[in-house]
Write a structure and sequence with these properties.
about 300 residues; about 15% helix
């Protein structure tokens, strides 16, 4: 029986997802074991949700669609590369020597499922030549242009072709049906991709939030056992900051978002099984952007 899929969409917002590291501030950690654990965890893919209920406005044919690359966002100002937060990215001089003298936006990318390597490379103050040879600046927009997105893409795909071995304009496609979109989406995800991006063809360039750019990305459900309560900081001082949980295989990680204020004041008990949502796995096998959904009801 084919699993149900529910399609909704999310606006692309400027957001950061802090990497949560295991600290020493556990209030409670105990080897509580529930009466039964399955022999292996099941990552339910029976309803890959799409983060929010934002519908496509107009026809699907109004959009140009590309693969969503899981790289590090980069901004080229005509002279140097920067992160989305404005920190300069140190690259070998040869990497950008043939870049144009006008601004570009894109993803620094080493291929599917290489986010950790790319992120580590960008953070280095001394560039590694051999690693940067694997990187492409995958361009998705052109801030200096006043053209519509469709015309921006056509112009710069032509202008930037073969200008540098390290610049690639991300291919944009037209798709006329949700069935065709679904087939492409499934292929991308099965091959380790993150999802798809939909950009309205008539949209002018907008810095920051843009309602004409939609992210099409899966979310999955799984379950884990609560083994610790980690105290909050700042506005969450005195209440729950995050849960420390363990999967049936023994993998431990934190869940720090998705809680109501009431749930932070009275968090799930140690030993409780909770359902969480995530957007795929890191290379280490931990859930990406794990978010609390609910406590599993006792059977």
């Amino acid at each position: 029986m084919k699993a149900w899929r529910y399609y909704t969409f999310i606006l692309v917002l400027t957001a950061t997802f802090p990497c949560m590291t295991l600290g020493n501030s556990l209030l409670e950690v105990t080897p509580v074991k529930p009466p039964f654990l399955p022999s292996k965890s099941v990552f339910s893919i029976n309803h890959p949700l799409f983060s929010a209920n934002l519908p496509i406005e107009g026809s699907l044919s109004d959009y140009l669609i590309s693969e969503k690359l899981d790289g590090v966002r980069g901004a080229w100002n005509g002279k140097q590369l920067f992160t989305r937060t404005g920190r300069r990215i140190i690259t070998p001089s040869w990497f950008t020597q043939d870049f144009p003298d006008y601004p570009l936006e894109g993803e620094l990318w080493m291929g599917r499922e290489t986010f950790e390597q790319m992120s580590g490379l960008v953070r280095r103050t001394t560039p590694l030549d051999e690693e940067w040879k694997k990187v492409k600046f995958m361009v998705f927009d052109f801030p200096s242009s006043e053209l519509t997105f469709e015309l921006r893409y056509q112009k710069f795909a032509k202008d930037l072709a073969n200008i540098s071995p390290y610049i690639v304009v991300i291919e944009q496609k037209r798709i006329s049906s949700l069935t065709e979109l679904d087939i492409w989406f499934e292929q991308v995800v099965k091959q380790g991709g993150e999802g798809l991006m939909l950009h309205r063809q008539t949209s002018l360039y907008i810095a920051g939030k843009n309602k004409d750019v939609i992210k099409f990305k899966p979310l999955f459900d799984a379950e884990a056992m609560v083994i610790g309560h980690i105290p909050g900081k700042g506005k969450f001082t005195g209440i729950l900051g995050a849960l420390l949980v363990e999967t049936p295989e023994g993998l431990r990680f934190k869940i720090g978002t998705g809680f109501t204020l009431a749930e932070r004041r009275q968090p799930p008990r140690l030993g409780a099984m909770v359902t969480y949502q995530f957007s795929g796995l890191t290379q280490k096998g931990t859930p990406r952007f794990a978010r609390f959904l609910r406590v599993r009801l006792s059977e």
